[in-house]
Amino acid sequence: DDQASRDFLRRILIKKDWRVHEASDGVRGLGLMKRLLPRLVVLDLLMPEMDGFQTLSEMQQTPELQNIPVVVVTSKDLSMNELEWLRDRAVAVVTKGANSRSQLVKALERQISAAE
Length: 116
Known about the structure:
Elements: H1 3-15, H2 26-36, E1 41-44, H3 52-60, E2 70-74, H4 80-89, E3 92-95, H5 100-115
Parallel strand pairs: 1-2, 2-3
């Protein structure tokens, strides 16, 4: 995602005492996930190298990454098929817009509470 959005997410998670690691694209993100085995992944769909759909597919095919909760954040106008596909694989899908920050905070707080 863009740097401003990543900074916003980092601040939310750091306030909850979570460690934050960032990747600017799906290829780097997968490498980081395999090394760190995070408790939560916040995934943008529109990324260079490997988009969020492919990244999520790769996670599902990688045994050590299959059960990591994923919160998808996107500005993409999703089709019904894409939305259904994502809902089958992610714990939350947040579309960027007027209420997206509050929706995202709520989705992250639910996952943080569930993991504690």
